[in-house]
Design goal:
The protein is of the alpha+beta class. The chain has one domain: Gcn5-related N-acetyltransferase (GNAT) (Aminopeptidase). The protein contains 4 helices and 5 strands; from the N terminus they run E-H-H-E-E-E-H-E-H. Strands 1-2-3-4-5 form a 5-stranded mixed β-sheet.
Length: about 140
């Protein structure tokens, strides 16, 4: 990991969309990425020779609610601790930024849920269940 550069800024929309796609995350629109990325509360990018190899963001209202999103590592580099490095950076931010009783949530794809559990994230069920709505094409 010595060759990896850590940046605390969101990626450009084009590289964000490309990493989401290659990492198997759901597709987003370029329009949405261009609107949303600059509004991140916190972002971390991992780069090798200026190429985006990993990322993660925190979004929300900055006071009561925070959501961890876009955790992605290039498939060729998964299993090398980069996801954990991204989460360490995010947790450092959250520990400083989240006020008392602030709620941090995320949607965990399996098997990434094991990574998030290492950082204290717990399943909400059966007390509550995650739900979502997505705008059509």
């Amino acid at each position: 990991m010595d060759e990896v550069k850590i940046e605390h800024a969101p990626p450009a929309a084009v590289e964000y969309l490309a990493l989401r796609q290659i990492a198997g995350l759901s597709p987003m629109s370029r329009e949405g990425a261009e609107i949303g990325l600059p509004r991140s509360l916190f972002a971390v990018c991992l780069r090798e020779a200026d190429v985006l190899i990993g990322m993660g963001r925190v979004i929300g209202d900055g006071g009561c609610f925070f959501q961890v999103v876009d955790i992605a590592v290039h498939p060729d580099l998964q299993g090398k601790g980069y996801g954990k490095l991204i989460m360490i950076e995010i947790m450092n931010y959250l520990r400083e930024a989240v006020p008392a009783r602030g709620l941090v949530s995320l949607l965990a794809d399996v098997p990434a849920d094991r990574l998030y559990a290492q950082f204290g994230f717990e399943y909400t069920s059966p007390k509550s269940e995650g739900m979502w709505w997505r705008q059509g094409e």
